[in-house]
Structures
1.
Amino acid sequence: MKRRDFLKTGAIAAPAAALAAPAIAQGVIEWKCPTSFPSKAPGIGTNATTFVERVNAMADGRLKLKLYSGGELVPAFAVEDAVQNGTAEIGHGTPYYNAGKNSANHFFTTIPFGMTATEMSAWLKFGGGQDLYDEIYGQRNLVPFNSGNSTVQAAGWFKKEITSVEDFSGLNMRIAGLGGEAMRKLGVNAVLLPPTEIFPAFQSGAIDAAEWVGPMLDQAFGMNKVADICYAPAFHEPGAGLNVVVNKDAWESLSPDLQAIIRNAAEAAESETIAQFEYFNAQAFKALQDSGVMFKTFPEEVLAALKTAVVEVLDEQAAANPDFARCLESYNAYLSVARPYSAAFSAPSMLQRG
């Protein structure tokens, strides 16, 4: 698949009229499902297509979802609004695109220096995370489901090497989430662009640096055509979650078995997407290295400054929003025991195998 093909599918935004009720024809429930991403993009887009295909197959014609690529039905960052107001019954994206609605949404995508993909899944399923997710999304009449994770991401592509904190001063960078807030404290002009706008902005010089996802998607979107320096791993996204959201009224209109189909399709999509990212990131990493891309890590001085900035950001957000504070408490409660466990088992295991 060529980069321009899947970028093109997400490039057209059109206004959509709100639906009074789900379309029902001869007992068949038909739902619209917009995604924030180009539907053909590997990982993020195929997470949506996998989910939709599984629902349609398991529902056996009783429930049919129609997937709309990013920007096709509603703008990329307006998917959850569309589901909330009834323009669509179900949608796909990532929670921190809606942090403006509630800053606690960051916890359901990723937190800088925080949980990995598997730790995130564990917290949601067994650590009380899903209860908070349900409650906070319920405030907007939405029912959320974790549907995937990008695993460890890259910190970004740069045209010049970062040797000190001073190199961040005045840098225009596309970066998402709370990592962007931390970067601002170090002098970066952090901007959030929709996926299809990242490459053109980077190529034109409108931005000096760009973080997107990781080797597979960064290669697919052409980041290596603009810069040959990539920093990894991402301090700000050790594992970024994807989600499916359903309008609560639409959800409650479904029979229990159709609800179970949606729930299980999301879980199946999560598993498949993590495997996809793990396998194809490794392939793309090798290809990028072979093409001359230099993968670097931030200097210790820079990482120390970022950690300080992240603590400040988390403290500020918690003071401003009780929901954020409650999520932070729950998140840190699990992370405090997960961190020493992974340090004793996962980290040494990676080092020992070489």
2.
Amino acid sequence: MKNPKLLPEKGSIAIIDFGSQYTQLIARRIRDLGVFSTILSWESSFQELCELSPAGIILSGGPSSILEESAPTFDHRIFELGVPILGICYGYQWIAAHFGGKVEKGEQGEYGRTSLSIINPTRLFEGLPSHLTVWNSHGDRVSVLPEDFEVIAFTADEPHAAIFNLKKNIYCLQFHPEVTHTEHGEKILANFLFEICHAKANWNLGSFIEESVEEIKRKVGKERVILGISGGVDSSVTAALIHKAIGERLYPIFVDTGLLRKNEAQIISELMRRNLGIKIHCFDASKEFLTKLRNVADPEKKGRSLAICLFVFSNALHKVSEKPNFLRKEPYIRISSKVRILVEKGLA
């Protein structure tokens, strides 16, 4: 299969999440610098990445070891896209292993603050002092560099603390620049964004809301939208944006599975009404769910049992569409030609 071509550069940064506790922090730091960032799971497709047309890519850290058979990975065509890449911690080790370097278990690991000595500033460390305090959290280490990579910084316990490949425009850090414990961490990220990726600092939350609302208006037109509400951040923000765009043509549905905290359905409904002005339509499906889950212990079977949620939505749709005809199309389900349902991926 041919590599998908990138669209004209949009200037955002794509973050491939390998399960790091700091991934959201990376995204926050980038957005604080005025550049939009999107987080993709390591299980996302290469096509999803290409559709973002990123100006640069960051590979996050993660709790796994690159030495494990089941270690997270990503499509290696990422290195053929021609955009700058920054690997952090696990992301660094994954890059090193791909290009033929050797990753091994460290004797004692490197955790907490340590002193970093910069021996080749490059554009990544431009404008920084030659010695920094940085934050580490890793058990594995790159013991042998991949071909054509050079060391640009080291610590007392890690001779390859930062490396780069100028020709491929790849930079790797064993420490975490996104945490406040790392001195000048924001400057390091800013150098990657503006000196290496040439991203534009033209994003702010206000413009994001306006653009999202306008996009929803264009896509929905005069149709109505059914939205599955969980009470979590993702679906609540989605509801707020859609409601701002189309008002009462939004039909939010909350399903009580019988597995909620006491009075949780009522609390969520009241919070949405009072804070966002959105009326939620609650459906009690506790009997159906609990019946399906009776005597089921296997997690996979439990997950399949929860597909009953679609039938609950089907019943609810009779209020807005007389003859529902399901056609599954990620990330929404289309019902006839007039009604669209936006469903959280984990819900359906």
3.
Amino acid sequence: MSRTDTHLRQDEIALVPPHFTVGRVLFSRPAGGTANASAVVVTASGQYVLKRRNPRYCAPAQLVYDHHVLSAARAAGLPAPEVVKTRSGSRWLEHEGRIYELYRFIEGTTEAHPNEDQLDAAGDMLGRFHHVTERLAPPGGKQLGRLWDPRKAADLLRPLQTRAMDGHLGSLLANSATEATERIELLLTSLQQIRMRLTDETYWSLPQTIIHADWHPANVKYQGTQIVGIFDFDWVDRQPRMVDVADGLLWFAGERSRVQGRGDIWTLTETPLLAWERMQRFMRAYATHYLPSAEELAALPDLMAARWIYSRVDAADRKVPEAEQIRFLLRDVEAPLSWLDQHRSDLVGPQWWS
């Protein structure tokens, strides 16, 4: 089974009236998501989102850090959700060792396939977010290290490779063992090449800001072409700003064939069809705030490749039942890597602006 619990129970939803001044719960519905448990809670005073934070994101210093960034974003006029404080004035509720947060619900739609104007809005909003957080010094703290570290991805891949070599393929056909082993070996080779080209020293030398670290269409809401909600601040951290840009180019500019909702990890990590013209739109909108340096562009293909591989292997490890993990990992995993190799000269050069 998956090791990530995303189901919010009725007894947890019943915590709302005693601890928050929002009135009696009339009804609730699942809110989706693959890392935290959440539900839309409707009371006499309006709609809210109740979220139980994943234990990975519950350290007190991390809570303080994340909420400081969220507050700064709201204060600057960005459409971050409004936190509903507890009756005691806290921004989160600790109950039986778990952390709960309540937010005012934001009306809008999640666009799995943003159109061109929505792409522009996503690039522009990311630039605005980076402008707000560039000089921010939140209290609390995080020790996330290098995001989407190719070494960590390789560590997660090797047990899957061993299972493939032993013929333990789960839902894959038994005669796929050799092919699966070889394909995982190619991913390990790609990660080793990323490490050689984009060393830790080079990674940390890139211009930094506090990034969102999950800039994905599932984490924003639109009304028409305007972004009216930014969500999921659990990964915010001071990192190279191009890590967020890499996300935008993969997930906003990339087109996926099917998306069934925020709670479906298979479609959220569906292989994106990468297209240069859509990437240009996103990048040009972002560049109205920050024009990437030559060093940042040189790192971009490897940041994108590392993110893509990590998104698959990390989700396989934490969010997919063991019997499905190898099939989940390998479904058309090579296509974005091949595209990035073929278009490396475009990604690192002045073609963005031509």
4.
Amino acid sequence: GLITGGSDEGEITAVSPTPNIASNPTIPAQVGDSGPAAPTPKPTWTPPVEVQITPNEEFYTLKYNPSPPPDVDLETYRLVIEGEVDTPLSLSIEEIRNFPSYTQMRTLQCISNPVGGNLIGNAIWTGVAMRELLEAAGIRPSGKYLRLECLDGYHTGIPVSLAMDENSLLVYEMNGEILPADHGFPLRALWPGRYGQKQPKWLTRIVVQRQPHVGHWEGQGWSDEARIQPTSIIWQPPEQEKQPPDYYVAGIAFSTDVGLEKVEVSLDNGNTWQEAELLRGPSPLTWTHWWLKVEGAEPGVYRVLARATDNNGKSQRRAKRGLGLLDDTFPNGTDAMHEIAVQVSGNS
């Protein structure tokens, strides 16, 4: 099965994102004969003030090939651009770096990320515009599609119209560092609004074609469009942790490049909804933090849901019951709502 996503694909080594936690001042331990020291108070969740960046070592990694990442020699590495072009190119990383560079915050998500899953991360990427490389190669009007080939044997395809988007990049840095081997060193693709399946790592060859190319996962039935579905993930509160009458429900949301309109939260199993507060990133291509403050909840167990709606008016739906982990993701990625049980105790 595909717990895999494009050259984001293969075995999971994902690390769950760490929600923004702010600690209360520590109460000094009491000294004397009056008994044990007072326990350190539990951290209190507070709304974030800046958009969270996922550290490179915590960013999810999936790959198509179970072997280690390709061992790349930069002296011999070349990115080849050929096919329906006037001037085929064979570029070293140094030559690619001589093109104008662009730095953007971007969120990546795997198409097989299950409801509430952690196959999603947000980073600062630096690279070159795909459009400028294609223009340097003299792309012909007959060239309508790209075949993308990678050093690990992975391949996929996109339309030229997507490659020419101003936000389509080939990146060589991640969070201010040389692109790590697990994340595609020396070069990976970033396209707006698409799942990781379409954004291959270890890119080495681009063929401009007249006809579409059927990629590895697309040939097995996964979406060729691979547009990101509206997504919301509840990070707070932890499901097994009792909450006081006043607490926060919070998390992140993401959608395709049309952007996110709103996130709503239900505290009563979907009967009523309240709009959450949002902290947006610099563009629709990043995740959005959301939160709702609950006050004066009565003791009991509550079924809590989060629902994202994008700017096309597409909202998440209630998950089907009885599906396996990935059944709801095939073939287009899941648009199902994340829901958790929250137990409220009577203690404030």
